[in-house]
From TrEMBL:
Keywords for the protein's UniProt record, in alphabetical order: Amino-acid biosynthesis, ATP-binding, Cytoplasm, Kinase, Nucleotide-binding, Proline biosynthesis, Transferase
Enzyme Commission designation: 2.7.2.11
Pfam families (UniProt xref): AA_kinase
Identification of the protein by name: Glutamate 5-kinase
Catalysis performed (reactions): L-glutamate + ATP = L-glutamyl 5-phosphate + ADP
Group of enzyme by EC: transferase
GO MF annotations in UniProt: glutamate 5-kinase activity
Ranges for domain Aspartate/glutamate/uridylate kinase: 8-238
Gene for this chain: proB
Function as written in the Swiss-Prot or TrEMBL entry: Catalyzes the transfer of a phosphate group to glutamate to form L-glutamate 5-phosphate.
Similarity remark: Belongs to the glutamate 5-kinase family.
Pathway: Amino-acid biosynthesis; L-proline biosynthesis; L-glutamate 5-semialdehyde from L-glutamate: step 1/2
Keyword RNA-binding: no
Binding-site residues for ATP, renumbered to this chain: 13, 172-173, 214-220
């Protein structure tokens, strides 16, 4: 059993591949189901911080683009459009369950430490005290680091660390980390628990994510390193099945579990 007793503050990261269809348009069924589960967990007394990707992908879909743009200014324009759409949907759906949402757009220099990091923590604490749900994304309209190099996986781990969260859960488009690429090898086996992140784990996690997103499994492994080193356990689970979050909270091993290394 995973050690998830006394879990109170949870950071949940959802990727573009879960939020949007390959067209870039919102996957309404997935978003509605996710919001319902998160609202229920909040009703149960959990503090929820949502790190949401999808602004560029959703913006591309809203503009009717056939594929994600390649140049940085176009990506930033799509992010500006998509972020409005995402927050409108989150506000509407969470509002149906009487929950208030808030938006935080962070850039790398804000979360690199120092006073700005303290300010982020203070803001998160205040929002949670007001019973609001912080929804966080990289500020893609002014920041190019995430667009060029990474994904919100790393951001979610940093947010979990800053917020002193009890748990980090990454929702993705597969069941977790496999010993080989399940898209190429039908015999691939799900790795249910990773106790040590070594070169072998990094090697099997190599590769990029969907065409709409920017990440892949390797960014999730990096997130696991940040989280577990900060004393925060992490799960990778299938974003198409948000009900798995209940099993995570109940201490069941689903997806891939990264326990805290106490050595």
């Amino acid at each position: 059993m995973a050690n998830t007793k006394n879990i109170q503050r949870i950071v949940v990261k959802v990727g573009t591949s879960t939020l949007a269809h390959p067209t870039g348009m919102l996957n309404i069924r997935h978003v509605e189901h996710l919001v319902k589960v998160l609202s229920d967990l909040k009703n149960a007394g959990k503090e929820i911080i949502l790190v949401s990707s999808g602004s560029i992908g959703v913006g591309s879909g809203k503009l009717g683009l056939k594929q994600r743009p390649a140049d940085i200014p176009s990506k930033q324009a799509c992010a500006a459009i998509g972020q409005c759409e995402l927050m409108y949907v989150y506000d509407k759906l969470f509002g149906e369950y009487n929950h208030i949402v808030s938006q935080l757009l962070l850039t790398k220099y804000i979360i690199d430490g120092g006073r700005r990091e303290v300010n982020v923590l203070n803001t998160l604490n205040a929002l949670l005290q007001y019973n609001a749900i912080p929804i966080i994304n990289e500020n893609d309209t002014v920041s190019t680091e995430e667009i060029e190099f990474g994904d919100n996986d790393t951001l979610s781990a940093i947010v979990a660390k800053i917020a002193k969260a009890d748990l980090l859960v990454l929702l993705t488009d597969i069941d977790g980390l496999y010993d080989k690429n399940p898209a190429k090898y039908p015999e691939a086996q799900l790795i249910k628990q990773v106790d040590i992140i070594d070169d072998h784990i990094r090697e099997i996690a190599g590769g990029r994510g969907s065409s709409l997103g920017t990440g892949g499994m390797i960014t999730k492994i990096h997130a696991a390193e940040i989280a577990t080193e900060a004393g925060i356990p992490m799960f990778i689970i299938n974003g198409e099945k948000p009900d798995l979050l209940y099993q995570v909270i109940e201490g069941q091993k689903v997806g891939t579990y990264f326990p805290v290394n106490h050595q």
